[in-house]
Amino acid sequence: MPDLPAPTIAPGHVFFFGLGYTALRLARRMRDAGWSVSGTVRSAEKAAAVSQAEGMTVHAFDGTAPIAAADPFAGVTHLVDTVPPREILVPALDRHGTDLRACETLRWIGYLSTPAVYGDRQGGVVTEDEPPTPGSRRGELRSAAERAWLDAFADSDVAVQVFRVAGIYGPGEGRNAIEQLKAGKARIIDKPGQVFNRIHVDDIGSILLASMARSRDGGIYNVADTEACPPADPIVFAAGLLGIDPPPAIPFDSAELSEMARSFYSECKRLDTSRLTGELGVRLTYPTYREGLRAIAREAGVSS
Q1: H-state helical runs in the chain
Q2: Closest to 165 (Cα-Cα) out of 227, 110, 228, 222
Q3: 64 neighbors 94 (Cβ within 8 angstroms)
Q4: Closest C-alpha to 73, from 23, 39, 46, 33
C-alpha cells in the first residue's frame, strides 16, 4: 500500500473530558496550532491553576454533578474523553449527554479506552476486528463505556471513534524508566512469557489528530507501538543509557502489586497496529521503546 499523505485538519474547538497527563500534552499542542481548547479537571482549585498556567478554559467536573458553567460546549467541534469508568460508567454522557447531542457544531468524538477489553490472549496477536472478550471487571467496564459512546451518537452526523491505548510512557511525572531508575522506583517484575505493548504520549496525540482528519464513525484503533516485549526490556535499556545496573528481578508471585497492576499482568497480548498506518496514515515517531527512551534521555541531558 502506498504511503498516505500526512493527515491535516483545520483548527476548531476541542473539549477534553479529563485534562490529565496525556490529554494536557495534546491540548497544548492543539492550542499552539491555533485551536480553541477547553476541558475539565476534577476540582475547582486545579481548574483555576491549569486555566491560569495554560491559557485554556478549564472547568471543575468530577462526574457527580454537571459542569457549572452555562453552555460549556458552545462552538465545540471535537471532543476527547479520557475519563475511566468509576461509580458512573461514562460521566460525560451521564451528566451532559443531552447537551452534547444538542451541540450543533460537534462533529467528532474520541474515547480513550484500553486493550483490557480483549482479555487474555496468551501472547497472541489481537486486531480491532476481534470482538471484546474482557476477563476483568476493568475490561468489562471499558467495553461497556465504548458501546455507550458509540450508541449515543449512532443516529447522528457525529463520528465516534474508540482508541484502545497501550501502556503510556513519556517525559515527566515519573512516566518513564529513566526517571523511575533515577528515583529508585523502577522494578522489574519477572513473569516468564509476559509481554506488553507501550505507546509514547506524543504518538497518542499524533494518532488522535490523524483520526480527526480521517474520521470514520465507529472506527476502533489499537494505539500501541510496534513491539510487544517483556516488562524488563525498557528498564534494562534505560539503565544502559544511564550507565547503571538495572534493579534485580522480582518474581511475579512474590511481588507486591496494586490490584490494577496485578490485573495488568494477568493478561498477555500483542496488539496489531496496521490500521494506524493503513487507514490513518500514521508513522509513529517512537515505533519502539528504544526511540522513545533515547529521546527522553536526550531531553534530560543524558548521553545516549
Answers
A1: 21-32, 44-54, 91-101, 137-152, 177-182, 201-213, 232-242, 259-265, 274-278, 289-299
A2: 222
A3: no
A4: 39
pLDDT digits (tens, 9 = 90+) for 246-283: 999 999 999 999 888 888 899 999 999 999 999 999 99
Q: Provide CB contacts within 8 A for 266, sequence distance 6+.
A: 120, 135, 136
Query: How far is CA 304 from each of CA 181, 199, 247, rounded to the nearest angstrom?
Result: 15, 20, 20
Residue type, 6: A
Q: Which three cell numbers stand for residue 266?
A: 494477568
Distances (CA, A) of 165 to 49, 114, 115, 198, 267: 28, 5, 6, 8, 15
Rounded distance, CA 116 to CA 264, Å? 8
pLDDT at res. 1: 32
DSSP 8-state code for residue 229: B
pTM: 0.96
Using DSSP bridges, classify how beta strands 78-81 and 108-113 pair: parallel, antiparallel or unpaired. parallel
The one-letter amino acid at 200: H
Q: How far apart are CA 121 and CA 96, in angstroms?
A: 36
Provide the terminal-to-terminal Cα distance of the chain, rounded to the nearest Å.
35
Exposure string of 99-129, with b = 16+ CB inside 10 Å and e = fewer, is bbeebeebbbbbbbbbbbbbbbbeeeebebe
Residues in Cβ contact with 116 at an 8 Å cutoff, skipping those fewer than 6 apart:
134, 136, 138, 139, 142, 263, 264, 267
